[in-house]
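Translate sequence into structure tokens.
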Amino acid sequence: MTKTSSKRILILLGHPSGDSFCAALAEAYADAARAQGHAVRELRLGQLDFDPSLHEGYRQVQPLEADLLAAQEAILWAEHLVFAYPIWWGGAPALLKGFVDRAFLPGFAFKYRPGKAFPEQLLRGRTAQLLVTMDTPPWYFRWVYRMPGIHQLRRTTLEFCGVKPVRVASFGPILGSTEPQRTRWLAQASTLARHA
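Result follows.
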């Protein structure tokens, strides 16, 4: 078996708590990626100091806090982005949505062009992996709810900015899961990292 070339991987924990199953998935992915020789950086959004509200929308510039500037630098550094986050009320946590609102700005992640219907994708050349937990059975979330909390980050954020492909691994239901199930899910996250 041929060893894959080393990549620069940024892992973003979108769960506010560092003591969550999302955090455990992120850690399992990071450990396996490092073992493969990849360069790994980690961002725990719950530890960053920033205002998640884009108070004036895009009508005026809201200065970026130091942690957001560092996060943008890490995104530009990365070749592969990994987002570990839970589905709450069908979508991503407010913290992750606020991070996207503040960090994925015009001029950084995309740029509108005069006379063009679609913007220039400034994050092209990167790939992504979503590690998504939920209490809903993943099949039900996919076929009945139509995966709004996945489509929002995958299609209308990352792919909109040029990140492709964006692969998705769903884990759940977390509520009521057993230790053997969680062990298998952590092993799955490790396997995904080995094929990053």
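Note: The two ends are 15 Å apart (CA to CA).
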